[in-house]
Amino acid sequence: MTAGGDVSIHVEEVVPWDAPEGQTGRGLQLCTSRGDIEAVIHNVEGSITAKAVIWVYGARGGFGSPADGLYTELADEMKGQVTSLLLNYRQPNDLAECVLDALAGISFLKATNHTEIALVGHSFGGAVVITAAPLSDEVKAVAALSSQTFGAFNAGIIAPKPLLLVHGANDTRLPPSCSEQIYQWANEPKELHIMQGAEHRLNECKEELRDLLRDWILAKLG
Fold it and tell me: Is the dihedral of CA 47, 215, 76, 34 positive or negative?
């Protein structure tokens, strides 16, 4: 899959990988033309679904999701209906390379017959998913949580794919004005939810965020 110009990434092989402690899915390593990407997949083996979610993280990468492990919990909760792929970055904090990682994840899911894909990113990962979304026809919906604005300037070309923005009102790392700015750049359909009392990692609104994300993903993937 290509992300503009001659910058490309190709998944050459997928091999098992020991997922870190606390991850309940199966570890996979996507061996690509630009290096190996660590991933954790949550699905019911043998099930047939075209729906999938790719979950990505902040600037440091890893698998420490926002809202106290919400990614993993939602991936498990939805796995009977939606395949989830949790992705680490090869080069954390390098936006272009991290976008390519997301595109590699999309390529892997497409090769396994997933054609309806949502992207979810937190913090730096918000910019990753906003940048990646217009580059793939398989992406049908995008959610950015506590997103930074750098790298999110192209939010206006995500449409007609729906965009969900969520931000904590008490975020002191990236203020809620970041998501408000992205909302202004974006075109309909779009939603903005400012969570009162919540900080950057959104731990304080975990249950509300769980319901919002689950229902939104299932609705947008049809």
Answer: positive
Single-letter amino acid code for the residue at 131: T
Q: What is the distance between the alpha carbons of residues 32 and 106, in angstroms, rounded to a whole number? A: 13
> Tokens 């931000």 identify what position?
167
Mean pLDDT of the chain: 95
Q: Give the ranges where 112-185 is alpha helix by DSSP (H).
A: 124-132, 177-185
Quickly count: other Cβ atoms within 10 Å of residue 185's Cβ: 17
* pLDDT single digits (tens) 61-85: 999 889 999 999 999 999 999 999 9
**Residue 106 identity (one-letter amino acid):** I
Pseudo-torsion of CA 138, 59, 98, 218, nearest 10°?
Answer: -10
Residue 189 CB neighbour total at 10 angstroms: 14
- For residue 201, which of 161, 159, 152, 167 has the smallest C-alpha distance? 167
Separation of alpha carbons 75 and 86, rounded Å: 9
